[in-house]
Amino acid sequence: MTNITFTTTQAERRTDAEREAVLQNPGFGTHFTDHMASITWSAAEGWHDAEILPYGPIPVDPASSVLHYGQEIFEGLKAYRHEDGSIVVFRPEENGRRLNESAVRLALPELPVELFVEAVKQLVTIDADWVPRGEDQSLYIRPFMIADESFLGVRAAERARFIVIASPAGAYFTGGIKPVSIWLSQEFSRAGHGGTGAAKCGGNYAASLLPQNIAAENGCQQVLFTDSNTVDTIDELGGMNLFLVRSDKTLLTPALNGNILAGITRKSLIELAEARGYRVEERAVTVSEWREGVADGTITEAFACGTAAVITPIGELKSPDFSISFGDKAPGELTMSLREELTGIQTGTREDSRGWLTEIVSSEQAA
Ligand code: PLP
Ligand code: COI
Predict the structure, then answer these.
(1) Ligand 2 pocket check: which of 91, 144, 172 to mutate, most ligand atoms within 8 Å of Cβ?
(2) Domain range summary for the chain, segments of one domain joined by +
(3) Whose CA is nearest to atom 5 of ligand 2?
(4) b vs e for 268-299, b when ≥16 Cβ sit within 10 Å of the residue's Cβ?
(5) Looking at the CA of 101, which ligand is closest?
(6) Ligand 2 surroundings by CB, under 6 angstroms
(7) Which residues sit opposite 41 in a β-bridge?
(8) Going by CA atoms, what residue is nearest to atom 10 of ligand 1?
């Protein structure tokens, strides 16, 4: 256990009416709670100055390294309110571990996982009223770390800051659980061998925005990235992992090949599917295989998964040259039933037999 304790500066909170107006229709990622958590790091002192403070702008020196060389990583996890009022978070220590894997790749300092979880707990506890109660709603938690040394030489910064903010959230894709269309990016890649594809760093998302715009121009909600050499071996979507379902009770998903993010939703779904007797093949999966499998009826469903997207059925994959469509067979049956199982565990309507939930506020405290 670390011996760092948090100091708290109370914010001027919004009124119940103001908060409830936001929670009626939170959207995704546009509203923020009253507080944030912050921990500072320096090479000389290590992690120190853990604080809960009012949500608001942070002072960043114009010479700060994050602004010039993009030394930044982030995480995404959710807190859910159960029927009895209690509040839980889903597998927070997994996010803490993954943050450290990203930190190593981006030459940022690792943060003890228990300090990561403690920062999340402290923030969710102080802003518990912001955890929505509505169906498909949650509190999206965004921990991130920035290099913060005022120095223009190109080297790993010797000062950094870890911050956690939180945002009440509804569905990431608007319009209910409708199959999405995805665009096959042939011109642009997200990651290359030895690059930062497996890290959750801002730069990967910056590189995905132009293809994401092209996807939108073509009526698609997300981009599918492939291996940059073949444009056939599937990596992942701009912000989600991908699964294909085969008619012989098999799920296919790209292996963690160093280019893709090791999704916690992906990992959880593999466990749930295997427990139902499905085979899960983690290996190279290609667009050709998808195309041929849909044509001969052996690939029956496709879905995207991630914290923000939960499980989102994919209706079609489009490219300038061809499209692969499930037509009115999407959303598929397994997609929807895995979604129901996972969200049931998260929201407390199903038993959490794997210990995936960490309770932050008990029903007694919430009462
Ligand atoms: N892949 C990318 C590029 C992502 O941004 C995300 C979202 O965090 C995922 C996959 C899914 O990861 P997780 O299930 O841990 O949210
Ligand atoms: C998440 O699911 O947490 C992400 O970071 C992905 C992004 C599309 C919001």
Answers:
(1) 172
(2) 7-172+355-366, 180-330
(3) 76
(4) bbbebbeeeebebeeeebbbebbbebbeeeeb
(5) 1
(6) 76, 239, 306-308
(7) 47, 160
(8) 240
3-state secondary structure string across 319-338: CCCCEEECHHHCCCHHHHHH
Q: Where does ligand 1 bind, in terms of residues with CB under 6 Å?
A: 76, 236, 239-241, 261, 263-266, 306-307
DSSP state of 150: B
Give tens-digit pLDDT for 70-118: 999 999 999 999 999 999 999 999 999 999 999 999 999 999 999 999 9
> Which element (helix H / strand E) includes 226?
strand 222-226
Least Cα distance to 142 among 125, 109, 176, 167 occurs for 167
> Which tokens is 43 given?
């090479």
Q: How far is the CA of 44 from the centre of ligand 1 (A)?
A: 33
Cα separation, 82 vs 88, in Å, equals 8
CATH superfamily of 180-330: D-amino Acid Aminotransferase, subunit A, domain 2 (3.20.10.10)
Write the single-letter amino acid at 27.
G
Does the domain formed by 7-172+355-366 have CATH 3.30.470.10? yes
308-361 pLDDT, tens digit each: 999 999 999 999 999 999 988 879 999 999 999 999 999 999 999 999 999 999
